[in-house]
């Protein structure tokens, strides 16, 4: 049997396919020139379109700033700025990424998975010492004693005085802002180094439970855990409200500060607008305090006078005190200076 192979027409230049062979009609020079011109034009258009699309994608990606936040009250202004649409109004896309712990947040900073975060001066110095260069652009809490608190408490049914803590273990997270604050509080009350004893309990909820169950002599807690413990009967021994030892800060990776300063400035303008809203009416954002900032509803009444500073830097004395303590602990391989940690380009006229 003989099978005829089908004839197909329509290839460029009038070519046909027959018995598997190409045969071309004769083309005039003009036809060939026009065909070549059309091909070149199509290729140029495709290249330009592809390049423009890629460029738009890169620009869109670059506009997004990712911030790493853990559920603490320090982060509230960023959640308010998101709700109020301030990031969008300032012309910057911001992704708020939540982490369960400071360790996870710091790991994301080191890996470059987030551009910035809310942290504290001790954490910033330790990140820097470990090779992750970050810069502080503003305080979030701690411009004065109203803003943020770390407290030493004894269990319900006790009434320890500060002097009762000499030589007795205090549960806290080691090599942290908490330990720094406890050390300074006790040193300023005449405690010698050997009289300050601590017990490592890194997780705040675990410390809280041990305190409330009376399984530790004392524990150091930040708000809102300190406030919750007091509300449930724990005894306040001392806190840093009067001395304002602890500060929380907004930080960005140094590469982001250098390459995307304009975006950082927009983020901080939105942040400052949110701070003004919170200070004007803290109760307005009570739902965000519980849902995003981890404040239990049971202690919301403690936050009726919640106050945040505007765009303001920690003082040189505050930064150097934290650095000196880290040096005393042997946690810095090389000395750090105020200028190593602070980027003052984004602050306004203070609080």
Protein architecture, described:
The chain folds into 3 domains: 8-58; 59-146 and 246-346, Periplasmic binding protein-like II (D-Maltodextrin-Binding Protein, domain 2, 3-Layer(aba) Sandwich), CATH 3.40.190; 150-239, D-Maltodextrin-Binding Protein, domain 2 (3-Layer(aba) Sandwich). The protein is globular, with a radius of gyration of 31 Å. A 5-stranded mixed sheet has the order 5-4-6-13-7, sandwiched between helices. Strands 10-9-11-8-12 form a 5-stranded mixed sheet, with helices on both faces. Helix content is 41%, strand content 19%. The chain has 13 helices and 13 strands.
Number of domains: 3
The ordered H/E elements are EEEHEHHEHEHEEEHEHEHEEHHHHH
Strand order of the largest sheet: 5-4-6-13-7
Mean pLDDT: 86
Q: Which percent bin holds the helix content?
A: 40-55%
Provide the CATH architecture of the largest domain.
3-Layer(aba) Sandwich
Examine the coordinates and then state which fold CATH places here, giving the name of the CATH topology of the largest domain: D-Maltodextrin-Binding Protein, domain 2
Tally the helices. Answer: 13
Tell me what portion of residues adopts beta-strand conformation.
15-25%
CATH homologous superfamily caption of the largest domain? Periplasmic binding protein-like II
End-to-end separation in angstroms reads 96 Å
CATH class of the largest domain: Alpha Beta
The geometry reads as globular
> Roughly how many Å is the radius of gyration?
31 Å
Residue runs with pLDDT of under 50 for 5 or more positions: 1-27, 47-60
Structural class: alpha/beta
Main sheet overview: 5 strands, mixed
Instruction: Tell how many strands the DSSP assignment holds.
Output: 13
Determine the oligomeric state from the structure.
single chain
